[in-house]
Amino acid sequence: MKALSLVFATLMLAALFAVAADQVPPAAGNPAPAFSLPNQEGAQVSLDQFKGKWVVLYFYPKDFTSGCTVEAHNFQRDLDKYTQKNAVILGVSVDDVDSHKGFCAKEGLNFKLLADPSHAVTQKYGSVMEYNGMTLAARNTFLIDPSGVIKKVYTKVDPQGHSTAVLADLQQLQSTK
């Protein structure tokens, strides 16, 4: 019986470490994990569609919440600056297409929000979190260069000044090439 308990405890620990290992975001210098998700209009969007452009891939918890709205508004405010820097903004949450469509309409967002209700892409990017019994996307951002390599990883983002910080890092990365 003790042997069985020990085996069970070992398996449980292994399972916990496997889940924790999945939650490590890919590091700067690594290729960005491929994905294809529907946007707010239901059209499939894949990372490989943006070869030759910088991609700001940001994960956020939930449409229509205060912090997520602030973050989205700041990206929208700076959208022309990103466009001038050959960059696109892609937001990802576990909300569905209809939620994203309503959020974009209500908040006047003109960039793509991608729906990941299965959490598959959110997990690939080590950005899953649990909150009040719900599985949500953690507020992490990945700055991906035109060849598909992650150049900067932001974890536990503060939505208030995030867009400004990403733009500054993008400027620095582009000036060092």
Report on this structure.
The structure is a single chain. By secondary structure, the chain is of the alpha/beta class. Strand 8 and strand 9 (150-154) form a beta hairpin. The chain starts with a helix and ends with a helix. A 5-stranded mixed sheet has the order 5-4-3-8-9. A two-stranded antiparallel ribbon has the order 1-2. The protein contains 6 helices and 9 strands; from the N terminus they run H-E-E-E-H-H-E-H-E-H-E-E-E-E-H.
How much of the sequence lies in strands comes to 15-25%
Order of helices and strands: HEEEHHEHEHEEEEH
Q: State Rg.
A: 18 Å
Helix count?
6
Q: Order of strands side by side in the largest beta sheet? A: 5-4-3-8-9
Span of the ends, CA to CA: 63 Å
The number of E-state strands comes to 9
Identify the overall geometry: globular
Average pLDDT, rounded to a whole number, is: 89
Question: What does the main sheet amount to?
Answer: 5 strands, mixed
Query: Could you name the ranges where pLDDT drops below 50 across 5 or more consecutive residues?
Result: 3-22
